[in-house]
Amino acid sequence: MGPLGDQQIISTRYNLIFVPSKPSRGNLRDLIFLDDLTKGPSEIEQYIAADVNSGLVPKMEFTLGDDQKNKITLTENSSKTISHHTAMVCGRYESTDVSRKVYHYERNGEPARDATLQCREYMLTTRGGRPCIDRP
Predict the structure, then answer these.
(1) Which of 34, 50, 90, 126 is the right S-S partner for 61, CB 3.0 to 4.6 Å?
(2) Domain map of the chain by residue range?
(3) Is it the case that residue 61 has pLDDT exceeding 50?
């Protein structure tokens, strides 16, 4: 999530949307747990991720619906980890990283610019045969 002029960028692994900066949509943690990011005002632009299984990779592409000509490319310039958390959850390893990333933002031939986004990467492994033991 991050600001870009009078718009705010909000993204999941499936889509990238632009919403007006005002009113604020809340902090990163609030946005993560919304059921549907696209609910709300009609001025929301929604772009679909080219690869929903890639996660936060150095280069990400999004298209406006099926229109391959209307494309956004985000190329990572730098990244700084803000927080890191690991835990064992019922025999599974859980890892959460929050970072501030600066992306080179390119949209349909417009002049390229930088956008600073706050990103959260979450991973939960399989149990791998480990039993789930409830602790009192």
Answers:
(1) 50
(2) 2-124
(3) yes
